[in-house]
Amino acid sequence: xxxxxxxxxxxxxxxxxxxxxxxxxxxCAGAGRNNDEGGDASITVGGATDTxxxxxxxGNDESGDKLDVNRSDSSGVVDECAGISQESSIxxxxxxxxxxxxxxxxxxxxxxxxxxxxxxxxxxxxxxxxDAHVVLLSAYPGASDAGICIDAPLxxxxxxxxxxxxxxxxxxxxLIESSDALTRLIERHADWAxxxxxxxxKHIIVVTDDNSxxxxxxxxxxxxxxxxxxxxxxxxxxAAIQDPVTSCLDGNxxxxxxxxxxxxxxxxxxxxxxxxxxxxxxxxxxxxIFDAVADQVIEGSDLACEFxxxxxxxxxxxxxxxxxxxxxxxxxxxxxxxxxGYVDDLAACAGVDGGWxxxxxxxxxxxxxxxxxxxxxxxxxxxxxxxxxxxxxVPAG
Length: 397
Fold this sequence. Notes:
Number of strands: 12
Radius of gyration: 25 Å
Order of helices and strands: HHEHEEHHEHEHHEHEEEEEHE
Structural class: alpha/beta
CATH architecture of the largest domain: 3-Layer(aba) Sandwich
CATH class of the largest domain: Alpha Beta
Largest sheet: 6 strands, parallel
Number of helices: 10
CATH topology of the largest domain: Rossmann fold
Strand content: 15-25%
Strand order of the largest sheet: 3-2-1-4-5-6
Helix content: 10-25%
């Protein structure tokens, strides 16, 4: 019920969110979670399955019981657990941005514009407190007259031969022909995959004076098959809006006469389908287009749905089998609005209504919310997330 109500909240409401997220080790009395006093404090997580069929980090509960909410002992008294409160910092959702620039001979002016504007574009995003990873697929100068090299601060300061500056910026040296931008993007996945993060928003920007030899439908099918965390994606295009010959005959109102090769119909379709930005390359005015894309990256970022596990207090040990995550719609509420259960990994999110998982079950440092859970917690001005330590982990139902 809560999630259905939240889905009706406006995006503007989400923008005004000022949430106090807390990572706490508050007492669990009344929360229905159990203190497994006999369990070991090892940080190793095995992901074994208990007798009830629900997966829990670190293996089976020694009692053989499923870790149900509100389990009580033989006298009917609910077990209690207690701990010490810790705070977790709040952040905006990060953004992963893939930029593909056509290196064909007719793109020398346009590629230079991208080179000039990319630093300003990225700095707008960083200034909004968004952790951005930018990946550029395009040839370096020398390999093509339309090659690109990005100076500092985004680039590494080694132009014209090298400019990668990870993790914030990676340049993949790939010659992009007139119509193969989307094909090359898919083909080079192994080279840019390390820059992608499961909870980050995904943006693709293509700059070309041509069209794609891959259809919009085929691209989206191939993109979606790569990794479930890559969806949704916003595709932005800077391409021609009109055939150059038609533009000349029409009086060149679009500006495409003698500027573009063909209209970028596939990129316009993808921008329409994914709520991206489409800019007319023929105007040769790139600053407003990059500004519009930067605005959408910023406005499209909700609150981050990953939380660094705080270090245990002095004298305490972290036990990944005793971690639970609760959502409180109002920070002053005594009881959680939503108790979020544990799943083994991102793939397991598909089988539950809501859940969370570790970034690395063997050595966890971060708690991540499943995408449907992330959607559900947005839009509440006085909400909090409580990460509770000390109670046996409850699996997602």
